[in-house]
Design goal:
It is globular, with a radius of gyration of 11 Å. It has a single domain, classed as SP0561-like (Orthogonal Bundle), CATH 1.10.3910.10. Helix 3 crosses helix 4. The chain is mostly helical. It contains four helices and no strands.
């Protein structure tokens, strides 16, 4: 059964996403995000993390979701 779109949402924390979808680590690396080692990964939602790093949250989410299809 194929995964459906938008499994990763803007409200998920980076840690929750990485635990559920470890394959997303390669996308974070592409964006030079070291989320696995960051204290903020435990509580920071993906959209806020993207904004804090000067990234477009919608584009980051699209790339993350593409990695889990």
């Amino acid at each position: 059964m194929a995964k459906t779109a938008a499994k990763i949402t803007k409200d998920m924390t980076f840690l929750e996403m990485l635990r559920t979808y470890p394959e997303t680590a390669k996308v974070l690396k592409k964006y030079n995000l070291a989320c696995a080692g960051c204290m903020g990964a435990q509580s920071e939602p993906i959209d806020l993390g993207a904004i804090n790093h000067g990234l477009d949250p919608e584009q980051l989410l699209a790339d993350l979701n593409a990695a889990v299809k």
